[in-house]
Here is the input.
Amino acid sequence: MNLVFRDQDDDPMYTPHLWAYDHEKLVQLFTEAGFTTVEPWKFDPIMANPKRRWGSVYAVATK
Here is the structure.
């Protein structure tokens, strides 16, 4: 588990993940924080680490 979430030491552009959430938990947290919509996010390799694509949950939230 640590290897999957904290393997970013080889690339200074990304920092290690300290937490892991599934889609349902992300929706809950965003909703509790006042966001009105939470939708799946299409992967963008410019913004997210491509080597993490297979094991990540991406979302876009709007207030």
Notes: Residues 19-62 form one domain. Strands lie at 37-40, 59-62.
